[in-house]
Amino acid sequence: MDFANLNVVLNAGVILPESIIVVSLLIALVADLVSVKTSKWLPAIAISGLLGAVTVLIWQWTNLTEPLAFVESFNGDKLSIIFRATIALSSVLTILISERYFLQSGIAISEYITILLSATLGGMFLAGADDLVMVFVALETLSISSYLLSGYAKRDPRSNEAALKYLLIGASSSAVFLYGMSLLYGLSGGYTNLHAIASRLPLGGLSLIVAMVFVIAGISFKLSAVPFHQWTPDVYEGSPTPVVAFLSIGSKVAGFALAIRFMVTVFPMVYEQWHYVFVVLAIFSMILGNVVAIAQTSMKRMLAYSSIGQAGFVILGMAIGTEAGYASMVFYMLVYLFMNMGAFGCVILFSLKTGTDQISEYSGLYQKDPLLTLCLSVCLLSLGGIPPLAGFFGKIYIFWAGWQAQAYGLVILALAMSVVSIYYYIRVVKMMVVKEPQEMSDSVKNYPINPTWTADGMKPLQVAIVVTLVFTGVAGIASNPIFTLANQSVHDTPFLSASIQNQALKVELLKQLADQEPVSQLPALEPTIQE
Amino acid sequence: MLSILIWLPLIGAIFVGFYPNLTAARTAALAIASATLLITLSLFFKFDPTTSGMQMEEYLPWINEIGLSYRLGVDGLSLPLLALNSFLTWIVIYGSKADIQRSRLYYALILVVSSVVAGAFVAQNLLLFILFYELELIPIYLMIAIWGGEKRTYAAMKFLIYTAISGLLILLGFFAITWLSGSSGFDYNINLEAIASIPLPTQVIILTVLLIGFGIKTPLVPLHTWLPDVYVEASPSVAILLGGVLAKLGTYGLVRFCLQLLPDAWSQLSPVLGIIATISVLYGALTAIAQTDIKRMVAYSSIGHMGYVLLACAAGTKLSLIGAVGQMVSHGLILAALFYLVGVIETKVGTRDLNALNGLLNPIRGLPLTSTLLIIGGMASAGIPGLVGFIAEFLVFQGSFTVFPILTLLCIIASGLTAVYFVILLNRTCFGKLDNATAYYPKVTWTEHTPALILVALIFFLGIQPSWLLRWSEPTTNAMVASLMIDAPSNSKIIVLSYPEAKVNQVLLP
Fold first, then answer.
1. In terms of Cα–Cα distance, which of A351, A343, A269, A293 is closest to A104?
2. B59 to A359, B43, B45, B125: CA distances (angstroms)
3. Which residues of A touch B (CB under 8 A)?
């Protein structure tokens, strides 16, 4: 087979963005070896690779005619494009905020960059994976890189503890996920492609339910949805802060991409069941994440719990299962990327200057650092859903989608929980803005000028903070393009729109039948609709 | 035109807050507030007081996916409130000191609140209203928490939580109305037929949710518990904004989104609402009598006066609804005057305790002019004829009497009780013998007097010439009454007496 034919079969152009990142990863590896001088350029190499990937993804948005690649094991549809772009962007911002952090902690950044790029690659492949093997390899690339990242501050015992905890729980959850996949492989009679499996699975039965539960357990670990969240606070607290930023955004986005693709494609037969499980996950995550966040005294832990709560809102969008529901999910992830990354950028800046992340140490900050105060306030208020910031529109979209899907109870709960979240976000804002000069904390009193914005590695941090601030502030008011993007990504993705149509049809048929026949006859209908 | 009312203060706030090395924050803010006030007043010339619908509408599509659009409009209900907002903002800025702590943030926040409240009054899209309603949360929170009294953090948090919950309930109510009436967006083009087709029990539930939401903001008993703490802990100028302007968001919401959108359910619930209103009025008056802190007394009086508005709305006659609009404005003016004067007394004398205050009317060593103005403010609040408070209360009582005779009588009694506590207040603070040993009060300057003088002059003027206050709203409120009557013909227990136009005019313009 010559090269041209091979390429027709493989359709390798779909993974051009990932290839660019691989190339930049290799260049980074080599550049580190060449000399000390070149290793200074590592972040720039990585960022240009990632931005190149994003550019290609933008081009692919309109110009990709055949999204299936590598014998249908990778899917480059619009949903995967938007998720991959989000992951790549989160990686860009992570690199921007981490340069100074590692410089100041005296840890070499070179391996960090390569591991982070591998994690990004894993996440991006996961977002488009359409095959069990592909899913698992991508998931493990992401996971193993994440374990390494969380233990990257190797002289810090807490970082080590975090890495070990993460590794142990992560490995077992991978095992559970793998077991679920092996069941699917067996039940379908030896297929690994998700669509092939879906068409050959039995229509119900205990084994299918067990497989579904195991798969959900594995995915929920990545989403850190309650009750699979226990690792989150400890890992977030111990890991280097930039890594936490990546884990709470990039890794979660990949998890959501996997969740949508896997659940919707493979489990249409047990649609009600898996939706039910996700509703439960959403309820638990929203309640536990938001309520426990109130009690935190450490900023990183608070953000950890708040990220659990935020994941709950996003899962709500998924549990609704309508077009608006999925679109609101995509929209929220995009917005969440910037507001959460902004918050982490500010936390890093504060800890660089003062060496602490206790919430009480933020008191009176407005006098010493107005920009930091403004940016952190805006990002936190946006996370809390205060208009006219981006988070408000994201939340309204999810809630309105939920209301339209008649999930009244869920929406009411989510609204109540967003009031709770306002409470703990405003606590930080209060510390920074409201406290009088005499109530200033010791770390703020001795707030150093150094590192100034001109110091090594501070410019990228400044860029990241300003970009996230501007986006969080403006994206809400000018959110029409993002809404269009989110809607298109759902509407133009075949497997998703087919599932939505099927469900709508099913509901309608059930309604018609309910008018004509007694309810006991209904189950007989299911097989005819599945095709 | 309406957009200017939102954007001018907002841009002004950004200018005051962020312009490098700005020293004269108060002057800049005052200039912006004056410009806004002039533009608001110019609206009165453009406004056509003979029609009932929305005027000066503006429309821009915004986000179709969630049914949000930028649709503004003004009618006879919102116009007086807009004017009240711009006017009180001006008063508050004028009445604040230039050297207040963190002055730039302070004046920027006041301008933001002014812009946001104007936005809420002109928003003709339910989500846009919610957006403005929630937007006011953080600035007010900061204003209470930074420039408040001793327990300010507690009070600010209480305000935040209550208002956030009220926002949540209102949002739920709007979701329900929009979804059940089958409209695709949240635009407020009153599709009453679609809403009326919602089953009545569901409508009643939606109305209850909305009522609780707006009731927290207004506030109505038993949702008022945040009010005394917040009004007392907030600095006088913030209290003016809270009581004079923001509380009107609650009553405005009651009329605009409860009465106007759900007239059927409103007629069903109106006896209950009348009772709640009466309880509010009595509760406010009785608890105010028991207070020894003059600011707290004024705060409780506010609960009572907001009760009149609900009573009038529940009665839903032509006369009572005009009275409700009048009461909203007059309450805003009177409360602003009272809070302002209480603030002056507190800074000059150093206490708000009724047992410590005495003889301020003393022409030489007391605060004679301040006391005089306080007496007039108290009289206006108690509903003495010739002042604007009388006009509003009289219209409310006369309009409601035909529908709720007993409740109205109780409210009239409560209005007598209002006189009781103001007599107590004035007697203790203004009259009596000044303690010569301690009375070395700094003089009140003319600049400090000006806001109160203007407010009192307006209270007098509108009391003598009420048509200047009421003629804008008459067609709008009449149309509301008409919709109440059309949609609640037989099953309603209220007998709506339609006053002929001539008679309304006769009452208004003797």
1. A351
2. 44, 18, 22, 10
3. 324, 327, 381, 386-388, 392-393, 396-397, 399-400, 403-404, 411-412, 415-416, 418-419, 422-423, 426, 429-430, 433-434, 479-480, 483, 487
Residues A9 and A35: their CA atoms lie apart, in Å, by: 41
> Phi and psi of A476, rounded to 5°?
-70, -50
Q: Is the pLDDT score of B304 beyond 50?
A: yes
Specify the residue for token string 């969440």: A336
Q: What is the DSSP string of B151-171?
A: THHHHHHHHHHHHHHHHHHHH
Terminal alpha carbon distance of chain A: 36
| Tally of domains in chain B | 1
Return the closest-CA partner of residue A96 out of A372, A457, A447: A457
Residues whose CB falls within 8 Å of the CB of residue A177, separated by 6 or more in sequence, listed in order: A136, A139, A214, A215, A217, A218, A219, A221
| Structure tokens given for B344 | 């002056």
Q: What does the alpha-carbon distance between residue B126 and residue B71 come to, in Å, rounded to a whole number?
A: 10
pLDDT value of residue A439: 84
More confident residue, B121 or B485: B121
Dihedrals φ, ψ of B431, to 5°? -100, -175
Structure tokens at A74: 């990778």
**What does the DSSP 8-state code read for residue B397?**
H
**Cα(A329)–Cα(A79) distance, integer angstroms:** 11
**Closest CB to A396 among B66, B132, B172:** B66
Do you find a cis peptide bond into B222, omega within 30 degrees of 0?
yes
pLDDT computed for residue B190 by the predictor: 62
B98–chain A nearest CA distance, Å: 19
- Is B292 contained in some domain? yes
Inspect the interface and report whether the beta carbons of A393 and B137 lie closer than 8 Å.
no
For chain A, the C-alpha Rg in angstroms (whole number) is 23
Q: Residue A496 and residue A263: Cα distance in Å, rounded?
A: 10
B54 in a structural domain? no
Q: d(Cα A204, Cα A223) in Å, to the nearest integer?
A: 26
Task: Note whether residue B414 is domain-resident.
Answer: yes
pLDDT per residue over A438-477, tens digit each?
888 888 888 888 778 888 888 999 999 999 999 999 988 8
Structure tokens at B160: 């935040």
- For tokens 């067996």, what's the residue? A186
Peptide bond into B219 cis (omega under 30): yes
Cβ–Cβ of B175/A423 closer than 8 Å? no
Chain-chain contact of A400 with B63 (C-beta, under 8 angstroms): no
Q: Is there a contact between B65 and A487 if contact means CB atoms under 8 Å apart?
A: yes
Write down the ipTM of this complex: 0.90
Report strand pairing: A68-69 vs A74-75: antiparallel
Within 8 A of B161 by CB-CB distance, chain A residues are: 419, 423
Identity (one letter) of the amino acid at A52?
Answer: G
- Tell me which of B66, B102, B171 to substitute to probe the interface with A (most A C-beta atoms closer than 10 Å): B66
Q: For residue B171, tell me if it sits in a domain.
A: no
How far apart CA B41 and CA B264 sit, in angstroms, is 35
For the stretch A77-99, pLDDT in tens is: 999 999 999 999 999 999 999 99
pLDDT, tens only, B379-389:
999 988 889 99
B138/A426 Cβ within 8 A: yes
Give the Cα separation of B90 and B92 in Å (integer). Answer: 5
d(CA B241, CA B111): 11
Q: In which domain, by residue range, is B448 found? A: 266-510
Whole-model pTM: value is 0.92
Q: What is the pLDDT of residues B174-214, one digit of tens each?
A: 999 998 888 878 888 766 778 888 899 999 999 999 999 99
**Cα–Cα distance for residue pair B104/B18, rounded to 1 Å:** 8
| Gap between the Cα atoms of A279 and A277, Å rounded | 5
Cβ–Cβ of B62/A434 closer than 8 Å?
Answer: no
